[in-house]
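Handout, section B. The chain below has 315 residues.
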Amino acid sequence: MPDEEMTTAAPRPRQAQPLPQLHGVLVLNKPSGPTSARCLAALKRLGQKKIGHAGTLDPLASGVLLVLLGQATKLSSHLMAGGGKIYSGVLRLGQTTDTWDCQGNILAEAAWEHVSEDDVRREIALWRETREQPVPPYSAAKHEGQPLYRLARKGAAAPAKVKRVEISQADTLDVSLPLVRFRVACSSGTYIRSLAHSLGMRLGCGAVLTELTREYSHPFGLDAARDLRDLTADPALLAASLRPIAEALPHWPRVELTPEQARQVRNGIAVRCASLPSGGGEAALLLDRGEALALARRKAAPGGPCWAVLRGLWN
């Protein structure tokens, strides 16, 4: 989900000594409040100058934020392209805000008492039929190079945008009107605020998102996540908490290279593809003594098929 520049800062480390640049994936349990960018800034102050993410969370949201360190930053587009997400959250009927969540300015309030529990359960189940959704006006999606949230704050007009999404699961967990707790499994980039807003429009009373937790961001869940406060209080935990790059790409077939082949890859030379790796496919993760070395694609060559590097993962 897009990251909006607002609200409080993430906790700062207590006179921590900078660490050397690390390489790997940190499964961070982002707290509600700070932006994703501020959470990354807190880790950057620990010496991690090369840092990125695989899909931000709104300030309101908490849960799994995949932080990419060092060479793992090269995985961002691959992780976001095929990575499904699972969220649980709470929405409130009877309000409409400019941000489509409870942190925005209230635009309208309406009676919700005519809405029944069955109405709510029916509408949430219909999320599974959603193929397109409107992009919130306060989002990081861009128009002519400018994030929509900046244009919205300036009062500048921007065309309404829609995006394609896939909802594979939509469950109502609890209905205590006007509050509704739900869980959704969806494609990367889905706006949960938009689902809540559209539900409120269909029910005729408005709705805003009040809580959101990302429980899973492919291929990691909350059970693997570390709290930001713990990491900034004890930076030594950062290195111990990192996941190897290969763990972030569990569905990529593996090809173990010989030392000579690994040297060739580092020198930009395509290596012969004697056979397809386990799992088949045209793309693979090349390994050097078990460590991720490069993302590669199989291609035809005069001497036979070979692995051509898509993305090198070495220092």
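Note. The chain is about 20% helix and 35% strand. Compare this with the example in section A.
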